[in-house]
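Pipeline run #58 for the internal structure catalog. This entry was flagged by the ingest filter as a single-chain record with no existing model, so it goes straight to prediction. Upstream metadata was stripped on purpose; only the residue string is passed forward. Reviewer on rotation: M.T. Logging verbosity set to normal.
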Amino acid sequence: MKRRLVGHRREAFVLAAATGLIGITFGFFADTSGFSLSQASALSVLTFTGASQFAVVSVVAGGGSTAAAVGSGLLLAARNSLYGPVMAPMLGRGRGCRFVAAQFLIDETTAMATAQEQPEHGREAFWFTGIWLFIFWNTGTVLGVLLGGVLDDPGTWGLDAAFPAAFVALLVPHLRTNSGRVTALVGAAITVVAVPTTAVGLPMLLAAAAVGPGLWVAARSGPTGGESGGAR
C-alpha cells in the first residue's frame, strides 16, 4: 500500500512538472499578446484552467470583446463542473474543504484521484496533484512572461505550437467514437463559416453547438453502437 502511495505521488509530480512547461507557454503567449505579469498571474491564480486561460488571451489578442473572451473561457471551463458529483463523495462534507477543492477541480486532479482504488488514496492523490500543479503552473506563467520580454519571437522556439499540439492530443481519443467524429465535423464546419463572418471569439462559442448532434448520435448508438472505443 505504501509503495502504491509513493507511486501515485511520483506520477502526480511528473504530471505537474510537465504541465508547468505549458504554463511557461501560456506566460509567453500572454506577454506577446500585451498582458502584464500581474494580469497573466491573476489569470493563472484565479482561473487555473489552461484551456480557458489560452482562450481568453487569444480572444483579447485578436481584438475580441471582453464578453467574447469571458464567454469563451467560461465555456471551456464548464466541463469541470461535471467532475463535482464524481469527486464530492471522495472529498468529504466539509464546506471549507470543498470550497478550496473547487479551485483544484480540473482534468488532471480528477483523473489522478479516480484512478485510485481506495477513497482515501483518491483524496490524497487529488490534493497532492492539485497543489503541485498549482505551484508549477503559476511558476511557469511567471517564467514565461519574464522570458517573453527577453526573446523577440517565442515562435522561434516552437512554444507557440505547444498548447495547440496538446489540444490535438486530447481530442484524438474522442475521434474513435461515432459521436466524437460527428461533434468534430460539425464543430469544424461551424468554425469554417464563422471565422470570416463573425467577431473574434464568437466562432469558439458557436462551435459549442456541435455538442448537440454528438449527444444525439451517442444516444442513438447506445452501449453497443460503437461508442466503446473512446478515452477511458
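catalog note: The chain has two domains: 2-156, 177-232.
catalog note: Residues 4 and 104 are 23 Å apart (CA to CA).
status: ready for reviewer M.T.
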